[in-house]
Amino acid sequence: MIVAVIGGGPAGMMAALSAADHGAEVLLLEQNEKLGKKLYITGKGRCNLTNACPVEDFFGNVVTNPKFLYSAIYSFTNEDLCRLMEQEGLKLKEERGKRVFPASDKSSDVIRTMENALRRRGVKIRLHSKVTGLQTEDGIVRGVFLENKAPIRADAVILATGGLSYPSTGSTGDGYRFARETGHTLTELRPSLVALKVRETYVARLEGLSLRNVRISMDRFQEFGEMLFTADGVSGPLILSASARLCGRIAQKEEMILHIDLKPALDPAQLDARILRDFGTGKNKDFRNCLASLLPAKLLPVILELSNIPEHKKVNEITREERKHLAELLKDFRLTVTGTKGFEQAVITQGGVCVKDIVPATMESRRVKGLYFAGEVIDTDAFTGGFNLQIAWSTGHLAGASAAEGNH
C-alpha cells in the first residue's frame, strides 16, 4: 500500500506517521524547503500544540462542525498526542487555560520531534515538491501530478495542504483547488482568529496597550479576558475568539459595535462609589489627575477626551451627570469594527471542504475513493488555546490509519 501525503504541516506529518504505523509505504510531499513552516511560527514561536481539557469539553471550543470531529478526536485524543510526543522524546508543560507547550518553549523542537519520528518509520520526505493536481480514474485516486517532475502513483492520497492563512508559509489554497477539481463542494473561505480593524482613529494612540480582565461583547458574543490595541484596531485572545464567532458577518462588510467593559468587577453603583473615592482624595485636583489609579496611563488621555469633562476642571466641581457619563464610558467603551486584518494575519482559515463530502469515521472522500482529507483544508475550526492544532493532529492520524488500511 503506497500512501502519498500532500503537505508537511501538523496534519500531514501526523497522517504520514499514522499511515506508516499502520503498515503503509508513505511518501510525504512538501513544497517548501522544510517541514512545518507554519507550525514554526504558531504560539509566537512556542507552539501551543494542544489543550489538556477533558476530551468531552473539547467540542465546546469548536466553532464549526464539532459533531463531524467526534470520531477523529476520540480515536486520537489530546492525551494520545501528549503520550506520543513524550514517547518520541519531547518534554511538555501545561500553562494557564490548560494550554500545552513544549517544555523548551521552542516550536522547532515539535517539528524536529515529528521529523525524527517520520524518518525512524521509514517515511520518504520529499521537499521542494509542489503538487499541481490529483490523478483520478473512474472516481478513484491514482496518484498526484508534480511540477516539473514525473507523476507519482499512489494507492491513497491524503490532502493536508492547510488553508489560506499566513500565505508566506506556503498556504496558497492549492488543496481547495484540488478538491474543487475533483468535484468536492467548498464552503466560503474567511480569515478567522484574526485581529480586527476599527474606524476610530484614536486607537493609534493606544497601540501596544494590553488590557487584562476586561469583558467584551459584540453581537451575541461575550467573553472575559485579555485584549490588545493595535495601530488600526484590536487584537489579543478575546478579539481572536470574537473573530472566530463573527467573521462571517464581518466578511459581509457589516459594521459592528465592539463593547468593552473596562471595569467588569464593579457594577455601576460600585464604580460610581470608586470614582467618588478617587475624587475625594484630591478635591482640589484637576480632573485629569484623578483617574491614574483607575486606568492605564496610555488610556487616560482618550477617556478624558471622550468623557467631555474639561481636563482642568476641579473634581469637586464635576456634576453628578458628568460622573454618571464617565462611569457609563468605562462600563461601555465602544469601537466600530469595520473589517479584519485578512488572511495575512489570520491564525486559521474558516471554511473549506464541505464535511458532507467526507466520511467522518475515516476522513475519506465520499466522491473520490482513496482520497482523504486532514487539517485546515476541512471546513472545521476552533478557538485559540491549542484546539485547532489538535484538530490537525486528530484528523491527520485518522486519515493516515484509514488510508493505510483501505482496500483501494
Sheet with the most strands: spatial strand order: 13-16-15-14-17-18
| CATH third-tier fold name of the largest domain | FAD/NAD(P)-binding domain
The computed structural class is alpha+beta
How helical, in percent, are the residues?
25-40%
| Rg on CA atoms, Å | 25 Å
Low-confidence stretches: none
Strand content: 15-25%
Q: If you average the pLDDT, what whole number results?
A: 95
CATH architect. name of the largest domain: 3-Layer(bba) Sandwich
Major beta sheet, specifics? 6 strands, antiparallel, barrel
Number of strands: 21
Give an account of the 3D structure.
With 408 residues, the chain is of the alpha+beta class. The chain folds into two domains: 244 residues, FAD/NAD(P)-binding domain; 147 residues, no CATH class. The protein is 31% helix and 24% strand. The protein has twelve helices and 21 strands. The strands form six sheets. The chain has a six-stranded antiparallel β-barrel with strand order 13-16-15-14-17-18. The protein has a five-stranded parallel beta sheet with strand order 7-2-1-11-20, with helices on one face. Helix 1 links the parallel strand 1 and strand 2. The longest helix is centred in the C-terminal third of the chain and has 19 residues. The protein is elongated, with a radius of gyration of 25 Å.
